[in-house]
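Fill-in record for DUF3127 domain-containing protein.
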Amino acid sequence: MSFEITGKLVVKYNTMQRSETFKTREFVIEKSDDINGRVITNYIKFQAVQDRTAIVDRFQEGENVKVYFNIKGTRWEKDGKVNYITNLDAWRMESIVANTPGVDPQPNYGGSQEFSGGAAPAATSNVDDLPF
């Protein structure tokens, strides 16, 4: 199951080579919500792994972003003690246009959209070329 959240990118950490074949990169977004007239600010740390560690490269700290992520959980046991670890595993990011009062933020697809499995869709030059 996939989730998404929008917020302000506040910290980008360096990529960490965890083993010869595994690397991670963490980043944090700030998410503020108005709950009954009281603003609550949360700082959410994500991780990106392997080839996804570069998804944060094109974004600047302070920029509004939308993060797509999965929740991953692991059971870890050492010296007879069991621990459970939860990770927010980011797999895609988009830039978000600044908020206008009364208007929901919209993704900015201007050249930063990631496409999987091939080239970007071709642009049409004539908007009247409808199939019906």
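KEY FINDING: Residues 100-104, 106-132 have pLDDT under 50 and may be disordered.
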